[in-house]
Amino acid sequence: MKLNKLNVLGWVLPYTRKEIVSSKYIETLLITIAVTPFCLVGNYFIVDSMKFQFSLKNLVITFGVVMMVAAFYLPFFYKFKAQYLLFVSILLSTGIMFLMRNIPYILNKYDNDFFVFLKGISELQLYGILAVIAVSFYGLSWMLSIRIYKNKAF
Questions:
Q1: Is 49 exposed, middle or buried (0-12, 13-18, 19+ CB in 10 A)?
Q2: pLDDT tens-digit readout, 89-144
Q3: Which residue among 11, 22, 81, 138 has its CA within the 20 to 30 Å range from the CA of 74?
């Protein structure tokens, strides 16, 4: 029986599959924390013409967007082989862009009560709700990735 080098390496390392997946999710959070200050500085020099305006709103939106994108993409990296990831990434990106562009129209057409609810809450509550939703999706994605990778046969 001829063994793949990756399989042999996986059997030798003292890490569980859960730890391997968790490290990828923790790495995503750490990189986001490290890169966000550079984005704010770049925004200061490029966009705002030297007017630094740090706001909690921008920070919550940045982390929320990164967590939502990572929550959608990371399980696909564990589910599909490398040869299919480019196609899946393009398909998923197209779907996300379509949804981001059309969600307001869909909600306006079918659910006006949702917008009435959004108008009735404060900005702090809105960003708190969005942060909880993003963290929840990230956590669910993390658990899904662990399950996918645990059941994956190499």
A1: exposed
A2: 888 888 878 887 887 777 777 667 777 777 888 888 888 888 899 899 999 999 99
A3: 11
Q: Is 154 helix (H, G, I), strand (E, B) or coil?
A: coil
User: Letter for the amino acid at 69?
Assistant: V
Q: How many CB atoms lie within 10 A of CB 130?
A: 16
The answer to pTM > 0.85 is: no
Please provide residue 153's backbone torsions phi and psi, each rounded to the nearest 5 degrees: -100, 130
Q: Is the pLDDT of residue 26 over 70?
A: yes
Closest-CA residue to 125 (of 117, 136, 137): 117
Question: How many residues are there in the chain?
Answer: 154
Joined tokens for residue 141: 């994605």
C-alpha closest to that of 60 among 137, 119, 138, 130: 130
Tell me the DSSP string of 26-95: HHHHHHHHHHHHHHHHHIIIIISSS-----HHHHHHHHHHHHHHHHHHHHHHHHS-HHHHHHHHHHHHHH
Please indicate whether residue 113 or residue 30 has the higher confidence score (pLDDT): 30
